[in-house]
Design brief:
The complex is a heterodimer of chains A (231) and B (245). Helices cover 26% and strands 32% of the residues of chain A. Chain A has helices at residues 3-27, 190-223, and strands at residues 37-44, 47-50, 57-61, 64-72, 79-81, 88-91, 95-100, 103-107, 113-114, 120-121, 127-129, 151-152, 154-161, 164-169, 177-180, 182-184. The two termini of chain A are 25 Å apart. Chain B has helices at residues 4-27, 209-241; strands spanning 37-43, 46-48, 58-60, 63-70, 77-79, 86-89, 93-97, 103-106, 112-113, 119-120, 126-127, 142-144, 149-152, 155-159, 162-164, 172-175, 178-180, 189-190, 196-199, 201-203. Chain B is elongated. Classes of the chains: A alpha+beta (231), B alpha+beta (245). Chains A and B meet through helix 1, strand 4, strand 9, strand 13 and helix 2 of A and helix 1, strand 1, strand 3, strand 4 and helix 2 of B.
């Protein structure tokens, strides 16, 4: 059948995925330390077209489009003051290290509290690790010196949900510094997300129109070609 | 079909929870010893995207609200000059026994003398250990020292027990300005020596009105944004339905 139908349909499916990604950014518009995503599309299954009579090469044509990658923008976002002694924000690059049952994970969401041993934990109850890779105990006044909290630089960070990130620690460039009484804002940019959402919906609609146009052409081929009376 | 619908709905539900917390904070802007709520957020699991995506491409499934306990920052002291009003300065709580028999902690120091002469909170919770004011001595005859020692007519009748827990964020609010301990908070232990009582004053709520208003606006806008994602997803499903006319 007409290849264009499938190409247009694949474009619509890819726009659906972009829409899901945008919805996730918008849902996390106030998640501390959240990092926004971008959906990158790429052509898929290129075909080399040739003139069937002469064999001359016409050029390449894609057979579909797909979402090649959803890239996370891990750049630091501005912090806002909360005045809470157990809220922490990293100024600059890097992540807090957190001990989870699945191993060490990383986060930039610094909304912490204390457990019954007086050690710093995340909102999910995981221990926050200090500069030496050990849990951090609060002082007698219930406060934690921000300099005790470890900041780790990562290569290939990847979001995992629950505000956690996986990645490989890398200690090249100087990591950021921690300050207390502040939380990093969400990296989701609502204005850009809204624009992307509209653009994506219109691209989706264009895909629909292409399918309809091809369908009409095929309809013509079925009903008109071979018709003697014409018109 | 579009999982973005559920993703956005999760975000709306999370904002709704924060809005409830802010509303509670605002309603308690004048509650003695009230501590405002800390609501956080987290993102949810990332799953392989649907058809038309390469292997390893994952989209998130929204946000959830996280209860990060209460903010136990000191509220400002308000002078009342009523002898039975005591305000706690620093970390700690008064130890009381609720009418239902449970032990609880409170920072509401607006005390009263009940019919039997015992010191109680405004909601009728007895001080632990009980402090009995002898007959014939009115409120004006009661003096409370910085360390909690209660004198009635110049004679020592007991001491207000000031306690705290290792993890104040783990305390469970029971209403009536009281908290009970939980496994997450640990048991009640003596408060630090630096904690003092001030007689004739009450601790105001630590709800910051301006901060609460800003959170409310932010919450409403985030709610609106997520709802926009839902209406767009709906519109797209409409478009998909129109492929076959």
């Amino acid at each position: 059948m007409d290849r264009g139908l499938y190409i247009a349909a694949s474009g619509m499916l890819a726009e659906q995925i972009r829409q899901d990604q945008i919805a996730n950014d918008l849902a996390n518009a106030s998640t501390p330390g959240y990092k926004g995503d971008r959906t990158a599309q790429a052509t898929f299954g290129d075909l080399l077209l040739a003139n069937s009579a002469t064999g001359a090469v016409v050029g390449r044509q894609s057979t579909a489009v797909q979402v090649a990658e959803i890239r996370t923008d891990f750049r630091p976002t501005a912090a806002r003051d909360t005045g809470e002694p157990l809220d922490f924000a990293i100024t600059g690059e890097g992540f807090f290290s957190v001990q989870t049952p699945q191993g060490v994970r990383y986060t930039r969401n610094g909304q912490f509290s204390l457990d019954t041993n007086g050690q710093l934990i995340t909102a999910q109850g995981h221990l926050v690790l200090g500069t030496g890779g050990r849990p951090i105990a609060a002082g007698a006044d219930g406060k934690v010196d921000p300099r005790l909290i470890g900041v780790t630089l990562l290569t290939n960070p990847r979001k995992e949900g629950d505000s956690l990130v996986t990645g490989t620690p890398a200690g090249a460039a100087p990591a950021g510094t921690v300050r207390s009484g502040a939380l990093e804002g969400s990296g989701a940019d609502p204005a850009r997300s809204m624009v992307d959402m509209i653009a994506s919906m219109r691209a989706f609609e264009a895909g629909q129109k292409v399918i309809q146009a091809i369908d009409e052409t095929l309809g013509q081929a079925v009903s008109k070609v071979g018709s003697v009376s014409g018109g | 079909m579009l999982s973005g619908l559920n993703t956005a709905a999760a975000g709306m539900a999370a904002q709704q929870q924060r809005m409830d917390a802010v509303a509670n904070d605002l309603a308690n802007a004048n509650t003695t010893g009230y501590k405002h709520q800390r609501v956080g957020f987290r993102d949810l699991v990332y799953e392989q995207s649907g058809r038309s995506s390469a292997q390893g491409v994952r989209t998130g499934s929204g946000a959830a609200a996280v209860d990060a306990g209460r903010a136990f920052a000191q509220g400002s002291l308000q002078r009342t000059d009523r002898p039975l009003d005591v305000a706690i300065q620093g970390e700690g709580f008064l130890r009381v026994r609720l009418p239902d028999g449970r032990d609880a902690l409170t920072r509401d120091g607006g005390l009263h003398i009940d019919g039997a002469g015992n010191l109680t909170t405004a909601s009728g919770a007895l001080m632990q250990p009980a402090i009995k004011i002898p007959d014939g001595i009115g409120e004006d005859g009661v003096t409370v020292g910085q360390d909690g020692t209660v004198l009635a007519g110049g004679r020592r009748v007991g001491r207000l027990d000031i306690v705290t827990v290792r993890s104040v964020q783990g305390l469970v609010s029971t209403g009536d300005n009281a908290f009970v301990t939980s496994a997450a908070s640990g048991p009640a232990v003596a408060a630090p020596r630096a904690t003092m009582l001030t007689q004739g004053a009450l601790e105001a709520s630590n709800t910051d009105m301006s901060e609460a208003m800003v959170s409310m606006i932010e919450s409403q806008r985030a709610y609106q944004l997520a709802s926009k994602a839902i209406s767009t997803a709906d519109e797209m499903m409409g478009i998909a339905n129109q492929v076959k006319r």
